[in-house]
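Q: Here's a chain of 424 amino acids. Please give me its 3D structure as C-alpha coordinates.
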Amino acid sequence: MNERPVGGQDAGRLLAQLRIDPAQRETPAGGGGSNRRRIVIVAGVALALAALAAAVAWWSTRPVVVEVATAVAPGAASGPGATLQASGYVTARRQATVSAQITGTIREVLIEEGEHVKAGQVLARLDDAAYQAGVAQARAQLLAAQALELQYQGQLAQAQRDTRRSQELIDRGLASRQSLELSQTQEGTLAAQLQAQRKQVELAQATLHGAEVQLGYCTVRAPFDGVVVAKSAQSGEIISPISAGGGFTRTGVGTIVDMDSLEIEVDVNEAYIHRVVPPQAAQAVLDAYPDWTIPAHVIAIIPTADRNKATVKVRVGLDQKDPRILPDMGVRVSFLERSATGGAAPPPVAGVLVPASAIVNAGGRSIVYALAGGRAHATPVTPGQGFGELRAVTGLDAGARVVRAPPAKLRDGGRVATGAAGEE
Protein backbone atom coordinates (compact mmCIF):
# COMPACT_ATOMS: atom_id res chain seq x y z
CA MET A 1 0.00 0.00 0.00
CA ASN A 2 1.45 3.31 -1.09
CA GLU A 3 1.45 6.20 1.48
CA ARG A 4 0.76 9.63 0.25
CA PRO A 5 3.23 12.20 1.54
CA VAL A 6 1.77 15.10 3.47
CA GLY A 7 2.39 18.40 1.86
CA GLY A 8 2.51 21.91 3.37
CA GLN A 9 -1.12 22.65 2.64
CA ASP A 10 -2.34 19.42 4.14
CA ALA A 11 -0.29 20.00 7.24
CA GLY A 12 -1.72 23.49 7.66
CA ARG A 13 -5.22 22.18 7.28
CA LEU A 14 -4.65 19.57 9.94
CA LEU A 15 -3.25 22.14 12.40
CA ALA A 16 -6.22 24.36 11.83
CA GLN A 17 -8.54 21.53 12.76
CA LEU A 18 -6.69 21.05 16.05
CA ARG A 19 -7.02 24.69 17.24
CA ILE A 20 -9.68 25.58 19.92
CA ASP A 21 -11.97 28.43 19.17
CA PRO A 22 -11.87 31.00 22.11
CA ALA A 23 -15.66 31.27 22.02
CA GLN A 24 -15.89 27.54 22.68
CA ARG A 25 -13.48 27.37 25.64
CA GLU A 26 -16.37 27.40 28.27
CA THR A 27 -18.26 24.26 27.62
CA PRO A 28 -21.82 23.76 28.84
CA ALA A 29 -20.49 21.49 31.63
CA GLY A 30 -18.17 24.21 32.89
CA GLY A 31 -21.04 26.77 32.92
CA GLY A 32 -23.25 24.49 35.11
CA GLY A 33 -20.56 24.26 37.87
CA SER A 34 -20.26 28.06 38.09
CA ASN A 35 -24.01 28.40 38.54
CA ARG A 36 -24.01 25.89 41.37
CA ARG A 37 -21.31 27.86 43.19
CA ARG A 38 -23.31 31.06 42.88
CA ILE A 39 -26.44 29.32 44.22
CA VAL A 40 -24.53 27.97 47.25
CA ILE A 41 -23.13 31.43 48.08
CA VAL A 42 -26.53 33.10 47.81
CA ALA A 43 -28.16 30.41 49.99
CA GLY A 44 -25.47 30.79 52.66
CA VAL A 45 -25.93 34.55 52.79
CA ALA A 46 -29.71 34.12 53.05
CA LEU A 47 -29.36 31.68 55.95
CA ALA A 48 -26.98 34.00 57.77
CA LEU A 49 -29.39 36.92 57.35
CA ALA A 50 -32.29 34.77 58.62
CA ALA A 51 -30.30 33.70 61.70
CA LEU A 52 -29.37 37.32 62.39
CA ALA A 53 -32.99 38.40 62.06
CA ALA A 54 -34.09 35.62 64.43
CA ALA A 55 -31.46 36.65 66.99
CA VAL A 56 -32.54 40.29 66.77
CA ALA A 57 -36.18 39.26 67.16
CA TRP A 58 -35.37 37.08 70.19
CA TRP A 59 -33.32 39.82 71.80
CA SER A 60 -36.05 42.39 71.20
CA THR A 61 -38.69 40.15 72.85
CA ARG A 62 -36.46 38.99 75.73
CA PRO A 63 -37.97 39.86 79.16
CA VAL A 64 -36.44 42.88 80.84
CA VAL A 65 -35.41 42.23 84.44
CA VAL A 66 -36.86 44.95 86.68
CA GLU A 67 -37.34 45.74 90.36
CA VAL A 68 -40.94 46.04 91.50
CA ALA A 69 -42.61 48.12 94.22
CA THR A 70 -46.22 48.14 95.44
CA ALA A 71 -48.36 51.27 95.44
CA VAL A 72 -49.63 51.84 98.97
CA ALA A 73 -52.42 54.01 100.29
CA PRO A 74 -51.15 56.94 102.38
CA GLY A 75 -52.21 57.37 106.00
CA ALA A 76 -55.46 59.25 106.60
CA ALA A 77 -56.20 62.16 108.93
CA SER A 78 -53.10 61.75 111.13
CA GLY A 79 -50.95 63.41 108.55
CA PRO A 80 -47.76 61.33 108.74
CA GLY A 81 -45.66 60.81 105.64
CA ALA A 82 -43.70 57.70 104.78
CA THR A 83 -39.99 58.26 105.21
CA LEU A 84 -38.72 54.69 104.80
CA GLN A 85 -39.98 51.31 103.68
CA ALA A 86 -38.71 47.85 104.58
CA SER A 87 -39.83 44.27 104.00
CA GLY A 88 -40.24 41.58 106.63
CA TYR A 89 -42.51 38.91 108.07
CA VAL A 90 -45.20 38.55 110.70
CA THR A 91 -43.83 36.71 113.73
CA ALA A 92 -45.28 35.49 117.02
CA ARG A 93 -43.55 36.51 120.24
CA ARG A 94 -45.40 33.75 122.07
CA GLN A 95 -45.17 30.41 120.32
CA ALA A 96 -44.53 26.97 121.78
CA THR A 97 -44.13 23.42 120.58
CA VAL A 98 -45.88 21.54 123.38
CA SER A 99 -44.37 18.25 124.49
CA ALA A 100 -44.60 15.82 127.39
CA GLN A 101 -42.00 16.03 130.17
CA ILE A 102 -41.60 12.26 130.22
CA THR A 103 -41.08 9.56 127.63
CA GLY A 104 -44.19 7.54 126.94
CA THR A 105 -46.68 6.21 124.43
CA ILE A 106 -49.42 8.59 123.28
CA ARG A 107 -52.85 7.25 124.10
CA GLU A 108 -54.91 10.02 122.48
CA VAL A 109 -54.41 13.40 120.82
CA LEU A 110 -57.24 15.88 121.34
CA ILE A 111 -56.26 18.76 119.03
CA GLU A 112 -56.44 19.62 115.34
CA GLU A 113 -54.86 22.38 113.27
CA GLY A 114 -56.73 25.67 113.48
CA GLU A 115 -58.35 24.85 116.82
CA HIS A 116 -58.45 27.53 119.52
CA VAL A 117 -57.31 26.29 122.93
CA LYS A 118 -57.34 27.76 126.42
CA ALA A 119 -54.56 27.70 128.98
CA GLY A 120 -54.65 24.39 130.86
CA GLN A 121 -56.76 22.62 128.24
CA VAL A 122 -55.84 18.96 127.72
CA LEU A 123 -54.07 18.47 124.40
CA ALA A 124 -53.03 14.81 124.67
CA ARG A 125 -52.80 11.91 127.10
CA LEU A 126 -50.07 9.32 127.49
CA ASP A 127 -50.35 5.73 128.65
CA ASP A 128 -50.22 6.12 132.46
CA ALA A 129 -50.64 2.54 133.74
CA ALA A 130 -47.11 2.36 135.17
CA TYR A 131 -47.43 5.78 136.78
CA GLN A 132 -50.81 4.88 138.30
CA ALA A 133 -49.17 1.85 139.88
CA GLY A 134 -46.35 4.04 141.19
CA VAL A 135 -48.85 6.38 142.84
CA ALA A 136 -50.69 3.45 144.45
CA GLN A 137 -47.44 2.06 145.80
CA ALA A 138 -46.35 5.43 147.20
CA ARG A 139 -49.74 5.91 148.83
CA ALA A 140 -49.54 2.48 150.49
CA GLN A 141 -46.08 3.27 151.82
CA LEU A 142 -47.38 6.53 153.27
CA LEU A 143 -50.24 4.73 155.02
CA ALA A 144 -47.84 2.17 156.46
CA ALA A 145 -45.53 4.90 157.74
CA GLN A 146 -48.43 6.78 159.31
CA ALA A 147 -49.65 3.61 161.04
CA LEU A 148 -46.20 2.96 162.48
CA GLU A 149 -46.09 6.55 163.67
CA LEU A 150 -49.34 6.03 165.57
CA GLN A 151 -47.87 2.88 167.11
CA TYR A 152 -44.82 4.75 168.36
CA GLN A 153 -47.02 7.54 169.67
CA GLY A 154 -48.99 5.00 171.75
CA GLN A 155 -45.84 3.32 173.07
CA LEU A 156 -44.34 6.69 173.96
CA ALA A 157 -47.48 7.70 175.86
CA GLN A 158 -47.34 4.44 177.85
CA ALA A 159 -43.62 4.97 178.59
CA GLN A 160 -44.37 8.48 179.84
CA ARG A 161 -47.05 7.14 182.19
CA ASP A 162 -44.66 4.47 183.46
CA THR A 163 -42.07 7.10 184.19
CA ARG A 164 -44.52 9.19 186.17
CA ARG A 165 -45.60 6.18 188.26
CA SER A 166 -41.99 5.22 188.95
CA GLN A 167 -41.31 8.76 190.09
CA GLU A 168 -44.30 8.64 192.48
CA LEU A 169 -43.19 5.31 193.94
CA ILE A 170 -39.68 6.61 194.51
CA ASP A 171 -41.05 9.72 196.19
CA ARG A 172 -43.02 7.46 198.55
CA GLY A 173 -40.00 5.18 199.05
CA LEU A 174 -41.72 2.19 197.49
CA ALA A 175 -39.43 1.67 194.44
CA SER A 176 -35.75 1.78 193.63
CA ARG A 177 -34.03 4.44 191.58
CA GLN A 178 -33.18 1.85 188.91
CA SER A 179 -36.80 1.33 187.93
CA LEU A 180 -37.15 5.07 187.29
CA GLU A 181 -34.05 5.11 185.12
CA LEU A 182 -35.34 2.18 183.07
CA SER A 183 -38.64 3.98 182.50
CA GLN A 184 -36.87 7.16 181.50
CA THR A 185 -34.62 5.26 179.07
CA GLN A 186 -37.61 3.55 177.51
CA GLU A 187 -39.39 6.86 177.16
CA GLY A 188 -36.38 8.50 175.45
CA THR A 189 -35.96 5.57 173.04
CA LEU A 190 -39.59 5.65 172.01
CA ALA A 191 -39.48 9.45 171.57
CA ALA A 192 -36.50 9.07 169.22
CA GLN A 193 -38.23 6.29 167.28
CA LEU A 194 -41.35 8.43 166.97
CA GLN A 195 -39.31 11.35 165.66
CA ALA A 196 -37.60 9.09 163.09
CA GLN A 197 -40.92 7.64 162.04
CA ARG A 198 -42.34 11.11 161.51
CA LYS A 199 -39.47 11.74 159.09
CA GLN A 200 -40.37 8.50 157.34
CA VAL A 201 -43.92 9.77 157.01
CA GLU A 202 -42.62 13.01 155.45
CA LEU A 203 -40.48 10.95 153.05
CA ALA A 204 -43.48 8.82 152.09
CA GLN A 205 -45.55 11.97 151.51
CA ALA A 206 -42.80 13.41 149.25
CA THR A 207 -42.59 10.10 147.38
CA LEU A 208 -46.34 10.13 146.85
CA HIS A 209 -46.21 13.72 145.62
CA GLY A 210 -43.43 12.85 143.17
CA ALA A 211 -45.42 9.90 141.84
CA GLU A 212 -48.47 12.11 141.41
CA VAL A 213 -46.38 14.69 139.52
CA GLN A 214 -45.07 11.99 137.21
CA LEU A 215 -48.62 10.84 136.66
CA GLY A 216 -49.63 14.40 135.86
CA TYR A 217 -46.96 14.52 133.16
CA CYS A 218 -48.99 11.92 131.29
CA THR A 219 -51.52 14.66 130.55
CA VAL A 220 -50.24 17.33 128.14
CA ARG A 221 -51.90 20.71 128.63
CA ALA A 222 -51.84 24.04 126.77
CA PRO A 223 -49.44 26.52 128.41
CA PHE A 224 -51.43 29.57 127.24
CA ASP A 225 -54.38 30.63 125.13
CA GLY A 226 -53.70 30.30 121.43
CA VAL A 227 -54.34 28.59 118.11
CA VAL A 228 -52.96 25.21 117.09
CA VAL A 229 -50.90 25.72 113.92
CA ALA A 230 -49.35 22.24 113.72
CA LYS A 231 -50.26 18.76 114.94
CA SER A 232 -47.05 16.76 115.24
CA ALA A 233 -48.05 13.41 116.76
CA GLN A 234 -50.69 10.70 116.55
CA SER A 235 -52.05 8.10 118.93
CA GLY A 236 -49.74 5.13 119.41
CA GLU A 237 -46.53 7.04 118.78
CA ILE A 238 -43.78 7.41 121.38
CA ILE A 239 -43.10 10.94 122.60
CA SER A 240 -40.07 12.17 124.49
CA PRO A 241 -38.81 15.59 125.64
CA ILE A 242 -35.45 14.68 124.12
CA SER A 243 -34.64 13.37 120.67
CA ALA A 244 -34.39 9.71 121.64
CA GLY A 245 -34.91 6.88 119.20
CA GLY A 246 -34.20 8.88 116.04
CA GLY A 247 -37.12 9.53 113.72
CA PHE A 248 -39.35 7.02 115.50
CA THR A 249 -39.78 9.24 118.58
CA ARG A 250 -41.81 12.45 118.52
CA THR A 251 -40.56 15.45 120.47
CA GLY A 252 -43.80 17.43 120.42
CA VAL A 253 -47.56 17.01 120.27
CA GLY A 254 -48.29 20.26 118.45
CA THR A 255 -47.41 23.93 118.08
CA ILE A 256 -49.52 26.69 119.61
CA VAL A 257 -49.33 30.37 118.68
CA ASP A 258 -50.70 33.22 120.74
CA MET A 259 -52.31 35.36 118.03
CA ASP A 260 -52.41 38.35 120.37
CA SER A 261 -48.60 38.35 120.41
CA LEU A 262 -48.18 38.76 116.66
CA GLU A 263 -45.82 41.49 115.55
CA ILE A 264 -43.60 42.26 112.56
CA GLU A 265 -39.87 41.85 112.14
CA VAL A 266 -38.27 43.77 109.27
CA ASP A 267 -34.69 44.15 108.10
CA VAL A 268 -33.76 47.80 107.60
CA ASN A 269 -30.65 48.73 105.66
CA GLU A 270 -28.09 49.90 108.18
CA ALA A 271 -27.55 53.05 106.12
CA TYR A 272 -31.13 54.12 106.96
CA ILE A 273 -31.48 52.81 110.52
CA HIS A 274 -30.99 56.33 111.94
CA ARG A 275 -34.39 57.20 110.49
CA VAL A 276 -36.17 54.66 112.72
CA VAL A 277 -36.83 55.58 116.37
CA PRO A 278 -39.22 53.90 118.88
CA PRO A 279 -42.15 54.47 119.25
CA GLN A 280 -42.31 55.86 115.71
CA ALA A 281 -45.61 55.42 113.87
CA ALA A 282 -45.70 53.06 110.90
CA GLN A 283 -48.05 51.43 108.44
CA ALA A 284 -47.99 47.78 107.41
CA VAL A 285 -49.30 46.26 104.18
CA LEU A 286 -49.53 42.47 103.90
CA ASP A 287 -48.53 40.92 100.60
CA ALA A 288 -51.76 38.90 100.76
CA TYR A 289 -53.92 42.06 101.15
CA PRO A 290 -52.16 44.88 99.27
CA ASP A 291 -55.12 47.27 99.60
CA TRP A 292 -55.34 46.96 103.40
CA THR A 293 -53.22 49.35 105.46
CA ILE A 294 -52.64 48.34 109.10
CA PRO A 295 -51.58 50.99 111.65
CA ALA A 296 -48.43 50.03 113.53
CA HIS A 297 -45.58 51.42 115.62
CA VAL A 298 -41.92 50.67 116.26
CA ILE A 299 -41.39 48.56 119.38
CA ALA A 300 -37.62 48.28 119.44
CA ILE A 301 -34.48 48.15 117.36
CA ILE A 302 -32.55 44.94 117.95
CA PRO A 303 -29.03 46.12 118.92
CA THR A 304 -27.10 43.99 116.46
CA ALA A 305 -26.49 44.03 112.71
CA ASP A 306 -26.30 41.30 110.10
CA ARG A 307 -22.88 41.65 108.50
CA ASN A 308 -23.86 39.51 105.51
CA LYS A 309 -26.93 41.57 104.58
CA ALA A 310 -25.85 44.89 106.13
CA THR A 311 -29.22 45.19 107.84
CA VAL A 312 -30.58 45.78 111.34
CA LYS A 313 -33.68 43.98 112.62
CA VAL A 314 -36.56 46.16 113.82
CA ARG A 315 -39.59 44.97 115.82
CA VAL A 316 -42.87 46.59 114.77
CA GLY A 317 -46.07 46.24 116.80
CA LEU A 318 -49.51 45.97 115.22
CA ASP A 319 -52.08 48.47 116.51
CA GLN A 320 -54.93 46.49 114.98
CA LYS A 321 -55.58 42.79 115.56
CA ASP A 322 -57.34 40.83 112.85
CA PRO A 323 -57.85 37.12 112.08
CA ARG A 324 -56.44 37.69 108.61
CA ILE A 325 -52.99 38.37 110.04
CA LEU A 326 -51.13 35.06 110.23
CA PRO A 327 -47.60 34.12 111.30
CA ASP A 328 -44.88 34.15 108.62
CA MET A 329 -46.92 36.32 106.22
CA GLY A 330 -44.86 38.65 104.07
CA VAL A 331 -45.35 42.33 104.89
CA ARG A 332 -44.01 45.71 103.87
CA VAL A 333 -43.71 48.41 106.51
CA SER A 334 -43.70 52.15 105.87
CA PHE A 335 -42.13 54.08 108.72
CA LEU A 336 -43.87 57.44 109.09
CA GLU A 337 -42.84 60.89 110.23
CA ARG A 338 -44.92 63.93 111.16
CA SER A 339 -44.49 67.50 110.10
CA ALA A 340 -41.46 69.09 111.73
CA THR A 341 -43.43 72.26 112.53
CA GLY A 342 -45.62 70.41 115.00
CA GLY A 343 -48.67 72.32 113.78
CA ALA A 344 -52.05 71.01 112.74
CA ALA A 345 -52.11 67.81 110.76
CA PRO A 346 -52.19 68.35 107.00
CA PRO A 347 -55.13 67.05 105.02
CA PRO A 348 -55.09 63.45 103.81
CA VAL A 349 -52.96 62.83 100.74
CA ALA A 350 -54.87 61.98 97.57
CA GLY A 351 -53.89 58.97 95.49
CA VAL A 352 -51.30 56.35 96.38
CA LEU A 353 -47.62 56.37 97.27
CA VAL A 354 -45.03 54.95 94.87
CA PRO A 355 -41.23 55.26 94.75
CA ALA A 356 -40.24 58.53 93.14
CA SER A 357 -37.89 56.59 90.85
CA ALA A 358 -40.88 54.77 89.33
CA ILE A 359 -42.19 58.01 87.75
CA VAL A 360 -40.67 58.80 84.34
CA ASN A 361 -41.39 61.42 81.68
CA ALA A 362 -42.55 60.16 78.30
CA GLY A 363 -43.69 62.54 75.61
CA GLY A 364 -44.20 65.41 78.04
CA ARG A 365 -46.36 63.41 80.49
CA SER A 366 -45.61 61.50 83.66
CA ILE A 367 -46.08 57.75 83.55
CA VAL A 368 -45.36 54.66 85.58
CA TYR A 369 -44.99 51.17 84.25
CA ALA A 370 -47.66 49.02 85.92
CA LEU A 371 -47.31 45.24 85.76
CA ALA A 372 -50.11 43.03 84.49
CA GLY A 373 -49.86 39.59 82.92
CA GLY A 374 -46.07 39.60 82.91
CA ARG A 375 -45.89 42.82 80.85
CA ALA A 376 -45.22 46.44 81.73
CA HIS A 377 -47.92 48.89 80.68
CA ALA A 378 -47.28 52.63 80.56
CA THR A 379 -49.88 54.24 82.84
CA PRO A 380 -50.30 58.03 82.93
CA VAL A 381 -50.25 59.48 86.46
CA THR A 382 -50.35 62.90 88.07
CA PRO A 383 -47.53 63.34 90.60
CA GLY A 384 -48.28 65.04 93.90
CA GLN A 385 -46.58 65.65 97.22
CA GLY A 386 -43.31 63.90 98.01
CA PHE A 387 -42.63 61.95 101.23
CA GLY A 388 -38.96 61.11 101.44
CA GLU A 389 -38.25 58.56 98.73
CA LEU A 390 -41.97 58.15 98.01
CA ARG A 391 -44.31 60.35 96.06
CA ALA A 392 -48.06 60.57 95.89
CA VAL A 393 -49.66 60.00 92.47
CA THR A 394 -53.21 59.85 91.20
CA GLY A 395 -54.40 57.62 88.38
CA LEU A 396 -53.21 54.40 90.03
CA ASP A 397 -54.93 52.01 92.42
CA ALA A 398 -53.53 50.93 95.77
CA GLY A 399 -51.83 47.57 95.53
CA ALA A 400 -50.72 48.07 91.92
CA ARG A 401 -47.22 46.78 91.18
CA VAL A 402 -45.00 49.29 89.44
CA VAL A 403 -41.48 49.13 88.03
CA ARG A 404 -38.91 50.88 90.18
CA ALA A 405 -36.42 52.94 88.11
CA PRO A 406 -37.55 51.64 84.67
CA PRO A 407 -34.64 50.75 82.35
CA ALA A 408 -34.26 52.78 79.17
CA LYS A 409 -34.94 49.70 77.02
CA LEU A 410 -38.32 49.07 78.64
CA ARG A 411 -41.25 49.68 76.31
CA ASP A 412 -45.02 49.84 76.73
CA GLY A 413 -46.36 46.27 76.70
CA GLY A 414 -42.89 44.77 76.93
CA ARG A 415 -42.28 41.53 78.76
CA VAL A 416 -40.63 41.81 82.17
CA ALA A 417 -39.14 39.53 84.77
CA THR A 418 -39.22 40.76 88.34
CA GLY A 419 -36.08 40.94 90.40
CA ALA A 420 -35.53 41.47 94.13
CA ALA A 421 -36.66 44.90 95.24
CA GLY A 422 -34.23 46.94 97.23
CA GLU A 423 -34.85 48.92 100.36
CA GLU A 424 -36.65 52.17 100.12
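Q: Can you summarize the key feature?
A: The longest strand covers residues 293-306.
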